[in-house]
Amino acid sequence: MIHRDDPSITALLRALDSGERDADHEQAAFEAVYPHLHAMAANLMRSERATHTLQPTALVSEAYLRLVDQSAVSWRSRTHFFAIASRIMRRVLVDHARNRSRQKRGGAYERVTLRDVLAVEGDHEDRLIDVIAFDQALARLEAEHERIARVVELRVFGGLTVPEVAAILDVSERTVGGDWTFACMWIARVIARDGEDRADG
């Protein structure tokens, strides 16, 4: 059961905010948030048709409202939550898509709405793409450019803004903007090329 304003999660986020940002504290926060966010996603997926689309950022925002005492956390605590939740949402969506693919014996992958991921300048419509294809492309980007992949994960799955991502990664907003532009082109190219390879195969 999901409890509103979970004090343990709020306390963990405040500890991170106060400078106790070591691996143990981050892992503890991850483990505290994961079951709640996973349950929320699972409930939503069960209530939708098989062809549903899911907006990760909307779900993460809802989780934040339910799980955190907003009066007790600062702006940086909020970004810490979204940073943790972005990694969880990526895992949840990919696991769900893989399970559906196995059930369908190789059928169509789950599709999600990922705002602006494949958008060109001036085009801000939502795009529907296979979450597994996106995750695979992101993993390849991560192997070559870890920070740039982190920017994508935070923006796509966590819904963080450029200033928030810059604060989390301790880089300039200009750097985040450049990373985002590079990543969008890189991921779009990889997904398109992989799609052509599958069609030829």
Question: How would you describe this structure to a colleague?
Answer:
With 201 residues, the protein is mostly helical. It has one domain. The protein contains 8 helices and 2 strands, in the order ααααββαααα. It has a two-stranded antiparallel ribbon. α3 packs across α4 and α5 (131-144) crosses α8. Mean pLDDT is 76; it is low at 1-5 and 118-126.
Secondary structure layout:
Blueprint: H1 7-17, H2 23-47, H3 56-67, H4 75-103, E1 111-113, E2 128-130, H5 131-144, H6 146-156, H7 162-169, H8 173-200
Antiparallel strand pairs: 1-2
Helix pairs in contact: 1-2, 1-4, 2-3, 2-4, 3-4, 4-6, 4-7, 5-6, 5-8, 6-8, 7-8
Tell the overall outline. globular
Average pLDDT across residues? Answer: 76
Low-confidence stretches: 1-5, 118-126
Q: Give the termini distance in whole angstroms.
A: 46 Å
Strand order of the largest sheet: 1-2
Structural class: mainly alpha
Largest sheet properties? 2 strands, antiparallel
> Helix content range of the residues, please?
55-70%
Q: How many helices does DSSP assign?
A: 8
Q: Which range does the strand content fall in?
A: under 5%
Concise synopsis of the structure shown:
This protein has 201 residues and is mainly α. The chain has helices at 7-17, 23-47, 56-67, 75-103, 131-144, 146-156, 162-169, 173-200; strands at residues 111-113, 128-130.
